[in-house]
Structures are given as C-alpha cells and as structure tokens.
Amino acid sequence: MIQEKYHRFLIVRTDRMGDVLLSTPVLTAIKQGYPHAETTMLIRDYTKDLISGHPDLDHYLIDDEQGIFGLFKLAKKLRSKKFDVALVLHPTFRLALACVLAKIPTRIGTAFRLYAFLFNKQVRLHRKNAGRHERDLNLEMAEKIGAKAENVVFKFYIPDRAVQRVKSILAQKGIDENSPFVVIHPGSGGSALDWPLQKFGRLAQKIQNDLNIPVVLTGSSSEAGLVSQVQKAANNRCIRVDGELATKELAALLKRATLMIANSTGPLHLAVAVGTNVVGLYCPIVPCRPERWGPYGQLDSVIMPPTSKCKTQKPKNREAGNCMDLISVDQVFKFVRKKLTNVK
C-alpha cells in the first residue's frame, strides 16, 4: 500500500493537442495510486477543452504568459496552490524554473537535459530515442512518484450538447444517425510531414464512388485552404465541416464516425481517445515515427512510405516533394476498404 506522501499534484503539459491527450492517462494513474489526491494540469488555453470534464482531473491552470514577467507571474500562481509535486511532462527550462521558483518540493523531469539539475527526482529516459509510445513514457515518469499505471485507459468527456449539435449538422448535410461515414483530416498543423492534398482528395473520391460511403472533411478555420484543395480533388463531393466545430464537437463527430484517416496530428489521437478506428499516415523521420506518436493501440493501422529517408520541409511547404508522396492512393484505399469491412 502506498503511503499518502503527496496530496496536490501538478501535471505540466503546455504543448499541443496530441501531447496533452497522450498525457491524460497520467491523471488516472495518479488517482489509482493516490485515491485522495488533488490533480491539476498546467496547459495552454487552446487545449483546455481536451481535459475539461475529465473524471480524474480536479483543476486546470492556463499558461499563456510570455517573457520574464510571465515566468514570475506563473511561478506566483503555482506557489499559491501549494503543490506537493510537479510532474513536468513537457520539459523546458522555463517550466522547470517556474516550478523551482514556485517552491514545489518534488519536481520530476527527465535527466538528460542541461537544466535537469532543476528536477530533484530525475527519470533517466531519452524520450526521443526510447522506441516507446509517448503515452507509456508519460506513465513511466508518473511511476516515479508511485502512480499506478496498470489498466489505464483514455477518458474523454463529451457533453450531450456537443453530441446533439453534431447530430444536427450531419442531418442537415444528409447523414442520418444510422449512416456510416469516413472522416478525413488532411492537415497536421505543421507537426509532421503530410500526405499530398491531391491524394487525400482522390482517396475521398474512391471511398465515395466505390464504397458508397460519404466522406466528411475536418480542419480548423485556418486550414480552409487545405480542405478546399482536397474538396476540389474529390470533385467537390465531400461534406465540409472545417472551422465549424469546437473541440468537444469534433470529438463527438469522431466518436460517431466509422473511420478516421489523417496524418500524424492531434485529432487522430482524439479519435483514438473516443474509441474510433483510424488510419494514420506517418513519415519515417525519427521524431515523428509511429512507435512514439502513432495511434495508441492501433499501430497496425499506420501506413508509411517504403523508405527510411525523408526530406524535411518548411511548414509552408510540408508536402512538396517529401517521401509521403511514395504512399499511393490505391495502397491507402485497399487498407481503408479492409478496415471498413472489419468495423462495420
């Protein structure tokens, strides 16, 4: 039996959508190890809907401040909460220093960084080269303080109002609640190399023509241009909801979908978190590889180009001439058809 040494836990994860989602199992592990614990996540404002309503989360704090004054403001905010332990899953010098300035007595982070001396409990782990999934790496760090990592699952809360709005949107676009549909999310927000937009469009066209299953295109409002290119390549037959959905509504849509197809991106992890089957398109660049960033529990649903070499591109041109073009539309379509046969 674990001694109740810690009571107030701070989990630090101020990066992106997928990173935050893959950190949420730590909340459950902490509650399993310390049933009376109080858990707080430090996140950025735009990811707050990913964790709101999580049954193992008690509070969250927002960190969108910048500069030296932002650092001291953050440290003051953290100090006022009197945390016993900080688990820094998104390790940066600024965040590690903020935890020191906040006088959090137990600070956990990875050992192999120049600022690792700011952590007084160090996990000897090279995350980039560990060959293990990000979710499992997060849980390993939590185990350092006695969190229980057995039988940990994703938990994602979707309010009924989000379910009803998605139901209404789909009905308006001709998809009733019993109809199958496929979601294609062609962007990645610059987090990975992308499959070409024209190929996404041709894939959407084949799914609709050959399988008679509608395709719904998702994306943020800033990705409208990408979605338009996919729509055009699909002869304007797809249903577009890009820019229309809040995070909880996107989750409701993905939970309702028969299958989701995407690059390595946060919405792919969201689909996994709500229990939807996926097809992930991944590049072989080490920091992006599916062993660490693939759809958890569905790594057999990943397609990669037949090469170990891939040119990185600037964010404005992440699909031009990169190795992802070696993945053919027919290859993905055959995989998708097989997946749809299995999940119907």
Fold and architecture overview:
- By secondary structure, the chain is an alpha/beta fold.
- It is built from 13 helices and 12 strands.
- The strands form 2 sheets. Strands 3-2-1-4-5-6 form a 6-stranded parallel sheet, with helices on both faces. The protein has a 6-stranded parallel sheet with strand order 9-8-7-10-11-12, with helices on both faces.
- Strand 7 (182-185), helix 8 and strand 8 form a beta-alpha-beta unit.
- The chain is globular.
Keywords:
344 residues, alpha/beta, Rossmann fold
What does the secondary structure layout of this molecule look like, with pairings?
Layout: E1 8-12, H1 17-21, H2 25-33, E2 38-43, H3 48-51, E3 59-62, H4 67-81, E4 85-88, H5 93-101, E5 106-110, E6 121-123, H6 134-143, H7 160-172, E7 182-185, H8 197-211, E8 215-217, H9 224-233, E9 239-240, H10 247-256, E10 259-263, H11 266-273, E11 278-281, H12 290-293, E12 302-303, H13 329-343
Parallel strand pairs: 1-2, 1-4, 2-3, 4-5, 5-6, 7-8, 7-10, 8-9, 10-11, 11-12
Helix pairs in contact: 2-6, 4-5, 7-10, 8-9, 8-13
